[in-house]
Design goal:
This protein is α+β, with helices and mostly antiparallel strands. Helices cover 25% and strands 34% of the residues. It has helices at 14-26, 36-44, 110-128, 152-161, 249-263, 278-286, and strands spanning 5-8, 56-66, 69-79, 92-100, 132-135, 147-148, 163-165, 169-176, 190-196, 199-206, 209-217, 232-240, 268-274, 290-296, 299-301.
Amino acid sequence: MPALEVRPFRRVDRDQLTDLVNLHVAAVVPGVSVSVNTVLSDLERQPGEFITDPWVAERTTLVAEQRDHVVAAAHLLRYRAGAEVGEAYRDAAAIDWFVCRPAASFCPDADGAADLLMRACLARFARWNVRVRYADGALPAPLVYGLPRNWPHIRSVYRRAGFRHVGDTEVVLIARVADLPEREPMPGVTVERTLGECGTRFTARADGHALGFVEIDTTLARPERHARAAGLADIGNLHIDPGRYGTGLEHWLLARAADWLRLCGVDRLAAYASAADGAELDLLTAAGFHELTRTDRGWEHRPG
């Protein structure tokens, strides 16, 4: 069998790497793929991570190749040690994402390729001499972050290398806009549309007071970055005044948001909730959402 080789990413690898990334994206979220330009941009800078990205001191991408075929790849980040860097990231290194093919007839040594690449990642971390080592699966596509349950082959690689899940678990949900609550009157309540922190905000008001709001981000499919994510939006924030729990206000707000989404040509809406928050999961399920995947956030290298 031809020998495996781990080496730095070269621009000529861009199409194979993008294909490998899109295979992993497709297992998590339906109807989404990323372009070559999106992947290349992600290797250089992550403008969406406007807090943590400026803290990055060094980036490197490694690939495992066999027969001129890229069978695994990883993108690594080293964070600076200065006081301006957040404490958790200070003098840290991270596998920002790791992708590899599962075992198949055309790649029978997939596990060997993944493990060889992982050893190269850990060797790079050792040369960087960092304080702590993290891992994630944050591909440059909407809804793909943490370590999704849809990637058991990546989970196995992380565990064999000594990474342990030390963070929380989030549920990613999705709903067809057509399945969101119907618009019904709520006497005395009006809706105000403004710009919010995470997208377009719809605020329910009564007697001059805000009762709750929902923020919808319809910019997930920026044309210069995502080749195929049109029709997808997500809930950036959903907040209801505690005194209005159980009144159906959340459904009323989602119905108003659904009207807007239809005008935007959006047919799918995603939401996020902690796996430990049963109340929020029940609320979203009752509003027409169903579970898309679970993703485990916060992996740290703790061998032994």
